[in-house]
Specification:
The chain has about 290 residues and is α+β, with helices and mostly antiparallel strands. The model has no long low-confidence stretch (mean pLDDT about 90). It has eight helices and twelve strands. The chain folds into two domains: about 140 residues, 3-Layer(aba) Sandwich (Aminopeptidase), CATH 3.40.630; about 120 residues, Aminopeptidase (3-Layer(aba) Sandwich). It has a twelve-stranded mixed β-sheet, with helices on both faces.
Length: about 290
Amino acid sequence: MKNNSIKLKEILDINDFTDINNLKNICTDYDKTHLKIEIDYKLSKGNKNSKNMNFINEFMFYDDNKLVGYAGICDFGGDEIEINGMVHPDYRRRGIFTRLFSLAKDEFYKRDNKVMLLLSDNNSIAGINFIKNITDDYDHSEYDMYLDMNVLHNLRFDNLIFRKAVYEDVNKIVKENFEFFHKNDIEEISSGATYIIETGNEKIGKARLEITDDIGGIYGLEILPDYRGKGYGRELLILAINKLKEFKVKAINLQVETENKNALNLYKSCGFKENYIMDYYRLIKSIS
């Protein structure tokens, strides 16, 4: 490598996306593992994701004009950020990802976030070993699941309202202390990605729906504690599935912690199948 360079950016443009996606395909084909780098989500948000405009989120290593290494930071709100990345198979063991991660870690220490989550496919020996050289503090694992699109779903209740959340719902959502809702998620409500489920005049649950390249995603699905165990979670999941199908998506995905047996059983009963496992390790910011 004679003419290598590192590009740092706040947000991705379409050229960055193309380079990173091509590198991702090369790495996943070679390693037979999965990467969760969220570039589709990042590109779709772009300048709308204003809370991260003043931070470096993208770290790209080039050999001439060829992208050979990438690390990316994802901030979904709250105290944690996530980092994942990759190096071209022909360029490994040259310290490329170590350099990129060092830059990402420096960026982490400039932010208010308290925890960095490092993630890797459970089957990636190299990925897990790299993380364990940094931190052995295991956090959790998640199944990535995909829906059997041929499964039919029948609703059991006819008195539920499923609608897009509007800005006027924010105070109620914040007051109810939903587990999977952060102040930064108010931006998602404004964009129309969050849906509310109601019975009577009560908001009892929510979910965020995303569509990228004709693939639907269900995130932050949650029923308030007083309404759990009554079948509302299943209804919310089916309503979310049906809404995504209205947009003619080709596939529907979601993630769930491997230890969350109730949610895992719910998803399986509605036709979701396990795809792969992603392991998460935490690096807690040390304050000197």
